[in-house]
Design brief:
Elements (H helix, E strand, L loop, with lengths): L4 E5 L4 H12 L3 E6 L8 E5 L5 H8 L6 E4 L8 H18 L8 E7 L1 H4 L26 H16 L2 E7 L2 E2 L9 H15 L3 E2 L4 H5 L1 E2 L2 E2 H13 L6 E5 L5 E2 H12 L3 E2 L8 H4 L3 H12 L12 H8 L10 H6 L7 H14 L7
Parallel strand pairs: 1-2, 1-4, 2-3, 4-5, 5-6, 6-11, 7-10, 8-13
Antiparallel strand pairs: 9-12
Helix pairs in contact: 1-8, 2-3, 3-5
């Protein structure tokens, strides 16, 4: 794949970071774009804010790439603002890439909110489960739809193929990520162990009991690569999940056992993590000092709000993978190992302690 030259937008995020490492290992030439990209071997950093149209044009001028992967978004206070800001990022990106004559393919990572609606009306109108890619869009505003439409228009105008990847609850290594359940639960369990607190499931009774699924970041990376190089996958949207399904009442005690804490089911009234962990900052500072961890600011590690949103749902959320299977994508990743592999990585990286 040495002839494939890729730009990853959002290279410091959970999807972008894992994709970058995967493609480097596969021999792709990788450029990583972020507002503050970190130094990484074999990844050429590009520091730019895509909301600045002129800066984006300067930063990407003359960049000869064959593929672009869009894995970034910026959370706003309303869906109208999400549409304005995240739509502008994608629009400015393709405006800056107008001169990329060898661009073959562009991929956009979105998520299951495609079927559930934006956070401010999450699940109030939803598609029928299991979610399938050919289901019509929900009524109302959704910044994923805006991003898709900008992608489709750019592909038609510039002559490249596209793919959309609707990943559900991505589990993988990343720090400072806006949507990162795996790291959030690792920090929560560490706090519970250190201070002798019960590891209470912070979500709804429905999520505790209903079937659901998640997506390993490494599996997402493999699907992104597959869709870029597989003609049958071009100009298609795909669900992206591990391929197994589970109930949290089965998984939660196993996560608790890994950390050596007492698992507790959800109480009659949900107690979200943002409420449970309102005093977590000084507690984490003490843990970080005691165990010489690399980050003592808990807010730089966790996304209480996003984990609360996922685990607090009172609806079923299962994604169908038949479409990509039919077209040849056979990758599969068990969910329990997704979490345990991440926890081991966090320990090796001194993000959480090795008790």
């Amino acid at each position: 794949m040495s002839e494939r030259r890729v730009l990853i937008v959002g290279v410091t995020g959970i999807a972008g970071g894992n994709l970058a490492q995967h493609l480097v290992d596969r021999g792709w030439q990788v450029h990583g774009l972020a507002r503050n990209p970190q130094s990484a071997e074999k990844i050429q950093p590009i520091a730019v804010d895509l909301l600045d149209r002129e800066a984006a044009a300067r930063a990407l001028a003359g960049l000869d790439i064959t593929d672009v992967f869009i894995t970034a978004w910026l959370r706003q206070n309303s869906e109208k603002e999400n549409i304005r800001v995240n739509g502008a990022m994608v629009k400015n990106l393709f405006a800056a890439l107008e001169g990329a004559k060898n661009l073959k393919h562009a991929a956009l990572v979105t998520g299951t909110k495609h079927y559930l609606g934006p956070f401010e009306s999450y699940g109030k109108t939803m598609a029928e489960t299991p979610f399938r890619e050919d289901q019509p869009r929900l009524p109302g505003e959704n910044f994923y739809y805006t991003q898709e439409d900008i992608l489709f228009a750019a592909a038609k105008r510039m002559g490249f193929t596209w793919s959309v990847h609707r990943a559900h609850t991505v589990i993988g290594y990343a720090l400072g990520n806006a949507m990162n359940m795996g790291v959030t639960l690792a920090v929560y369990a560490t706090l519970c162990r250190e201070y002798g607190l019960p590891f209470v499931f912070p979500g709804s009774q429905e999520q505790w009991n209903f079937l659901t699924d998640v997506c390993d970041a490494k599996l997402l990376a493999k699907q992104l690569e597959w869709a870029a190089i597989t003609p049958a996958a071009h100009d298609q949207a795909f669900n992206t999940v591990n391929g197994d399904i589970f109930r949290w009442r089965w998984l939660w005690p196993q996560i608790a056992a890994y950390f050596g804490v007492e698992a507790a089911p959800p109480p009659a009234e949900t107690v979200p993590l943002e409420l449970q962990m309102r005093d977590a900052a000084p507690m984490w500072e003490k843990i970080a000092s005691k165990y010489c961890l690399i980050e003592n600011r808990v807010e730089k590690l966790v996304s209480w709000w996003h984990t609360d949103a996922d685990l607090g749902r009172r609806i079923e959320c299962v994604n169908d993978m038949s479409k990509s299977r039919r077209l040849g994508f056979k990758e599969y990743h068990e969910t329990l190992p997704s979490f345990l592999e991440l926890f081991e990585h966090l320990k090796r990286s001194k993000v959480i302690p090795t008790f």
